[in-house]
């Protein structure tokens, strides 16, 4: 399993951590599960983040090989591009803070998102997945940007929001960005903490079960 340090707590799985922005090499093949998280660059800014082509290749291979995959925010956008979809600068501006996302009908039978319903999620992005890959199943939507979550095949999920983000993590992002409304946004996310845990911890546990099952339904 490859993901950021600390993110494995809800999963209950041993995780290898790969930090390409610190010089870690992107693996050629996924392990038994793959999580790709966010970042500051746009999904097409390979000159800014030169590890992105290898990350897209890894995501494409994970989908082709039915490796359980969870792609978050920039990770979701990289997965979208890797599999033939489109990511663009969002026409509706920055989506940031604790924002509502709404489950679509297909989510009711989804292994990860069947319990989500209408939920609060942490958002921090200004780019949007404007066209999903062929065969993608839309799972969640939102008022500012419609493509909030989808499944590709039976074992790959993309979410535009941040189910892994704690209030502390979100505060670190707003501190780095210098947003004028940072204090208000930080308080908003802190107030939603209970709802965030109640919704997204079960999703993480469900993904861990998919990994343990080797992707089998």
Automatic annotation (TrEMBL):
TM segment ranges: none
Keywords carried by this UniProt record: Glutamine amidotransferase
InterPro entries found in the cross-reference section: ChyE-like, Class_I_gatase-like, GATASE
Domain of life: Bacteria
A family per Pfam: GATase
SUPFAM superfamilies reported for this sequence: Class I glutamine amidotransferase-like
Residues covered by the Glutamine amidotransferase domain: 13-168
Protein's recorded name: Type 1 glutamine amidotransferase
């Amino acid at each position: 399993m490859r993901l950021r340090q600390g993110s494995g707590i809800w999963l209950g799985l041993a995780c290898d951590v790969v930090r390409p922005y610190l010089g870690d090499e992107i693996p050629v093949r996924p392990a038994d599960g793959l999580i790709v998280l966010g970042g500051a660059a746009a999904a097409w800014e390979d000159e800014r983040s030169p590890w992105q082509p290898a990350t897209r290749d890894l995501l494409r291979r994970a989908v082709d090989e039915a490796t359980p995959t969870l792609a978050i925010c920039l990770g979701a956008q990289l997965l979208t591009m890797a599999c033939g979809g489109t990511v663009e600068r969002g026409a509706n501006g920055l989506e940031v803070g604790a924002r509502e996302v709404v489950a679509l009908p297909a989510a009711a039978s989804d292994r990860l998102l069947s319990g989500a319903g209408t939920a609060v999620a942490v958002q921090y992005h200004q780019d949007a997945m404007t066209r999903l890959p062929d065969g993608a199943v839309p799972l969640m939507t939102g008022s500012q940007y419609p493509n909030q979550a989808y499944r590709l095949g039976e074992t790959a999920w993309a979410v535009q929001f941040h189910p892994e983000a704690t209030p502390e993590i979100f505060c670190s992002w707003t501190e780095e960005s210098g947003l004028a409304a940072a204090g208000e946004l930080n308080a908003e996310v802190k107030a939603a903490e209970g709802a965030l845990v109640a919704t997204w911890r079960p999703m993480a546990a469900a993904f861990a079960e998919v990994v343990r099952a080797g992707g089998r339904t």
